């Protein structure tokens, strides 16, 4: 790996323009990048899970 190569691979996702623009603005106002927000959301998704039926977050039974 060259010194200028990112530590994580690049990914492609499809996001509506209005949502992407709003996410960029909010992330910037919080001193974050959209990538950081997406990574945090994915970590939350993997850790807690989501209900396929409702599309809402489901807390693990152990409260973690």
General description of the model:
- With 64 residues, this protein is mostly helical.
- The protein has one domain.
- 44% of the residues lie in helices and 0% in strands.
- It contains 2 helices and no strands.
- It has helices spanning 17-29, 34-48.
- It is extended.
- The N and C termini lie far apart (36 Å).
Topology:
Layout (H helix, E strand, L loop, with lengths): L16 H13 L4 H15 L16
Number of strands: 0
Low-confidence stretches: none
pLDDT averaged residue by residue: 84
Q: Helix content range of the residues, please?
A: 40-55%
Count of alpha and pi helical runs:
2
> What spatial form do the alpha-carbon principal axes imply?
extended
Category from helices, strands and their pairing: mainly alpha
* Main pleated-sheet profile: none
Radius of gyration over all CA atoms, rounded: 15 Å
Spatial separation of the terminal alpha carbons: 36 Å
Indicate the proportion of strand residues.
Answer: under 5%
Any idea how many domains? 1
H/E series, N to C? HH
């Amino acid at each position: 790996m060259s010194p200028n190569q990112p530590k994580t691979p690049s990914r492609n996702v499809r996001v509506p323009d209005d949502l992407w623009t709003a996410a960029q603005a909010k992330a910037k106002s919080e001193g974050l990048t959209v990538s950081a927000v997406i990574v945090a959301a994915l970590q939350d998704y993997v850790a807690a899970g989501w209900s396929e039926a409702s599309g809402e977050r489901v807390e693990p039974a152990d409260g973690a």
